Amino acid sequence: MNEFGFPRGGIIHVGANNALECKFYNAYGKVPVAFFEAMPDVFAKSKETLERFPLQRIFHACCADVDGKPVTFNISNSRGMASSMLPAGRLTELHPGIHYIDKVEMKTSRVETILRQHYTPEDFNLAVIDTQGADLLVLKGFGAFLDRLEGIYVEISEEPLYEGGARFDEIRQYLVDKGFVLTKMYYNAVFWGNAFFTRRAPIYLHETRSAVSVGKPVSMSSTHLTYKAENGNDGNPLQRHKLFSTKSQKDAWWKVDLEALTPIKKIYLFDYAPQAARSASMVVEVSEDGETFDIVYDRKVTPRLGAGPTVIHLAGRKARWVRARLTDREYLQMQQIAVVADDEAVARHGMGVAKTQAAV
Q1: What are the φ and ψ backbone dihedral angles of 240, each rounded to 5 degrees?
Q2: CATH topology of domain 10-201
Q3: Cβ 187 vs Cβ 158: under 8 Å
Q4: 241-255: per-residue pLDDT in tens?
Q5: pLDDT tens per residue across span 286-319
Q6: DSSP letter string, 140-167
Q7: Could you state, in order of their start, the residue ranges of all structural domains in the chain?
Q8: Topology given in CATH for the domain delimited by 204-359
């Protein structure tokens, strides 16, 4: 995700085994992580491990495309790592040392069914799927959570290793139909490996271009050279060397007026990469009246991570003005600040949101 510049978001990991990735995910950022594991004893051990990471949790489930289907989950002698809800098939032929030694009778669950009890699709943008041949069935159970993902890392094989397992071309076609493209792929000597798919049209770019803040009145504390305030809310975060910039000063700020009290879903911050260090003291504030501002993000508390935009989730908080401000003396330089309205809150409460230029 760092390599492809996606915003930091939650991770869904199906086929957790011992949840060994928990430390890496914790270092990745303060994001929710949902693990799924079918083996009862491994689940219990992983649950204990994850107690150290409050944003990470694990669900005991055999994931598939439907809820409630009886299945036999087969447990292997390879420390459980080749265990599957599918019969072994060619697995034992290609790997003679691996065989099933136990089994557990279970009922399948869709990922979406479990996650909706605790999260919303907005909480996640990356999935890792390692379910020993059942990967396509698992993907089909993601439902609306698949629609919000920016990236999917999935186990693949040219021909099924497990009886009834999906081939790589089946997984690829399913994800292509869902708006993804193959970005990276690895095969080993027996044509088994992993693939990384990314969304063809990234969600964060679509949301930035259609943001409620696009084209709205903006101002800032000063202007450095020709880097005017309007550069920061034109809906185009990718144009090179296009940015807004104040002069170097104490409490430098940039502010947008949404022209109406608006429930805000999220705010995207696109740093000007060559000078990203200058925003280290930035806070983002919101206001209903233009006089009293509340801090909703403090970069000294939550530093910028990776190359992608920073995302501030506000869950429908109402505001008319959004302001970025530096607490140290420095230039305030950003490529784009995009405010995304919470359309569901607007529909729920009947609140008016002023139209963006993109919607006119």
Answers
A1: -65, 140
A2: Rossmann fold (3.40.50)
A3: yes
A4: 899 999 999 999 999
A5: 999 999 999 999 999 988 877 789 999 998 999 9
A6: HT-THHHHT-SEEEEEEESS-SSTTPPP
A7: 10-201, 204-359
A8: Jelly Rolls (2.60.120)
